[in-house]
Prior knowledge:
Blueprint: H1 3-22, H2 39-62, E1 67-71, H3 74-77, E2 83-89, E3 96-97, E4 102-107, E5 113-117, E6 122-127, E7 134-136, E8 140-146, H4 148-152
Antiparallel strand pairs: 1-8, 2-4, 2-7, 3-6, 4-5, 6-8
Amino acid sequence: MNKRTYIYVLIGIAAVFVVDLVFPDHHHVVFKWHTIAGFDIAFGFLGAIVLILFSLGLGEYFLWRPTISISLEQNDVGAGNRAARVKTLLVEEGDWIIKGQSLVVFETDRGLPVVIRAPESGQVSRCFVDPNEVVRVGETVVNLVVAKHAVAHGDKETEGTHA
């Protein structure tokens, strides 16, 4: 929202508050705090904010899953190499993996095998490479959705990971 929208919202809130001051609704007053001008407006506004924050918290706890992009790095292929060929793709989309598990085996120009391992436990959400494809340094190889137990336990590997 821009500055003008904020000003209009504040003017609207102030106008409702003034109308509540001038024309109080006294036919259903049950508690003393209902006689305070603007109490119902403030209470409703704060209740809405609490409800929004609560729903955001639930969404983050149950729906949010961090994703890691795993790419081919320069230190993986060695100095002077700018690319490597995918020799073997060891995972498929949807596979559950554990921390340290081999994901892809590359072969450098010099014929040396390079293995990319999972930095965390989780599920493979997308594979960006195919066997025999040449991948340049810095290109994303696999996206990994981190398992909730890895986040909750400080990235420690735990028993009972989905296989």
